[in-house]
Amino acid sequence: MESLYKLIRDCIARDSKSQRVFYEYYYGFALKTVFRYIYQYDKAVDVVNDGFVKIFNSLERFKLKKEDADTERILMGWMKRILINTAIDELRKLQNSPVVVELPEYIWEQTDRRYDADQKILYKELICEIKRLPPSYRKVFNMFVIDGFSHGEIANMLGISEGTSKSALAKAKAQLKRFIENRFAEKSYAV
Q1: Which pick of 7, 20, 149, 189 has the fewest CB atoms within 10 Å?
Q2: How far apart are CA 176 and CA 126, in angstroms?
């Protein structure tokens, strides 16, 4: 905990070596977060880099307490919000459906201590199914289910009504259910 506290303090002091360590340590987490919104790999990398610039520029506003055992969890939640907002801003600029490509396999192997091996496999499969959703449903599903935003927050961030957010979520869940049921039906025939 002491080392994370020191690393954050050094990043706030604009120490380039500390910023590089911070960037490399959280890069996998950041790319996975952004990739749920931006499926074009090169564009996702650009958004991650823009997100880290925003993170470093506002890190001094992060409520850092030396004795807080939950610092990393809180930091990752704070970073996730910045990364998602950066991705949504990019989607607004693009004004079209993102090109769907596969995330390179080595990204899934990057350290993300929040998940064990089985959870990583299930997460990867879920993301593959989520990618099949229409963009409007996909954004709302990601924001509500995976990232934990409320319908009010989603409505505000996306410029839609809360009712539209709720409707998109219900439709996304129904489509995902069909995708998953069809996938399991295909596997049972294969056996």
Answers
A1: 189
A2: 9
Q: Which strand (E) or helix (H) includes residue 24?
A: helix 16-35
Q: With contact defined as beta carbons under 8 Å apart, do 154 and 140 qualify?
A: yes
Q: What is the mean pLDDT of residues 46-56?
A: 96
- Burial of residue 177 (CB within 10 Å: 0-12, 13-18, 19+) is exposed
**pLDDT, tens digit (0-9, with 9 covering 90-100), for 66-125:** 666 788 888 999 999 999 999 999 988 876 444 444 445 554 444 455 555 556 566 677
Instruction: State the pTM of this model.
Output: 0.69
* pLDDT of amino acid 93: 84
Helix axes 2-12, 71-94, angle to 10 degrees: 40
Helix (H) or strand (E) holding 2: helix 2-12
Number of H helices, E strands in the chain: 9, 0
Maximum C-alpha span of the chain: 59
Q: What is the DSSP letter of 75?
A: H
